[in-house]
Automatic annotation (TrEMBL):
Residues 27-42 have a biased composition (Low complexity). Residues 191-230 form a coiled coil. One of its GO terms (molecular function) is calcium ion binding. The keyword Transcription regulation does not apply. Keywords: Calcium, Coiled coil, Metal-binding, Repeat. Residues 1-50 are annotated as: Disordered. It holds the Pfam family EF-hand_7. Residues 86-121, 122-157 form the EF-hand domain. This is EF-hand domain family, member D1. It comes from the Eukaryota.
Length: 235
């Protein structure tokens, strides 16, 4: 197993370092340590305690027990303030619909299917170029944040008219016209709203709450009608 081999290598290095510390200074001599091509050289000067810590950390990683590192929480509503809540929800629904792997990303094959569904199929190279344009972390796939960047750049008129990303934004049936964006092209032209951004945001939240209340009332009415019909059959 890879973890066992790694443990043996680090334990060997740990033993060699401890032996070197126990010798008198006059008797100390360099201890030859076998170096594998895939092993980093940065641990050669570590103390035994540091090596032990690294050994335990590496074994935990291999066994899947390492504590997860802190990650920055992404809030699309605060980072993409140029879009309304409804626009972002529409984009999220579209993203999830084509994230068939349910891993939170749209990979190259999923993007291929998305573009075919939109009626704008792309070549393999074209798909890779689409991802590369907004792939900020260079992982070769689209996160939801990178997906939103497509619509931000489209709304700002930063995409070429014939590019695959522009085709995606234009054919997605999501109106991403934004307020305060100068020079936006075609249907991305900026619109002037009477309400401020904050009041508009609050109004959308109220509408969502009212919609949920309406759905709850309709659900209760359907349940009551069903019980009434059921009791009529049983009587």
């Amino acid at each position: 197993m890879a973890s066992e081999e790694l443990a043996k290598k680090l334990q060997s290095r740990l033993a060699a370092a401890e032996e070197a510390e126990q010798r008198p200074e006059t008797e100390q001599s360099p201890v030859p340590v076998p170096v594998q091509s895939q092993e980093p050289e940065q641990g050669c000067g570590d103390t035994p305690s540091e090596l032990a810590t690294k050994l335990n950390r590496r074994l935990d990683i291999n066994d899947g027990n390492a504590p997860s590192r802190a990650t920055r929480v992404f809030n699309p509503y605060t980072e993409f303030k140029e879009f309304s809540r409804k626009q972002i929800k529409d984009m999220e629904a579209m993203f999830k619909r084509f994230d068939t792997g349910r891993d939170g990303f749209i990979d190259l094959m999923e993007l291929k299917i998305l573009m075919e569904k939109l009626g704008a199929p792309q070549t393999h190279l074209g798909l890779k170029n689409m991802i590369r344009e907004v792939d900020e972390d260079f992982d070769g796939k689209l996160s939801f944040r990178e997906f939103l960047l497509i619509f931000r750049r489209a709304a700002a008129g930063e995409l070429e008219e014939e590019s695959g990303l522009m085709a995606l934004a234009r054919l997605s049936e999501i109106n991403v016209s934004t307020e305060g964006v100068m020079g936006a092209k075609d249907f991305f032209e900026a619109k002037v709203q009477a309400l401020s951004q904050s009041s508009k945001f609050e109004a959308e939240i109220r509408e969502e709450k009212e919609e949920r209340k309406k759905q709850e009332v309709e659900k209760k009415e359907r349940q009551a009608a069903f019980k009434q019909l059921q009791s009529a059959f049983c009587s």
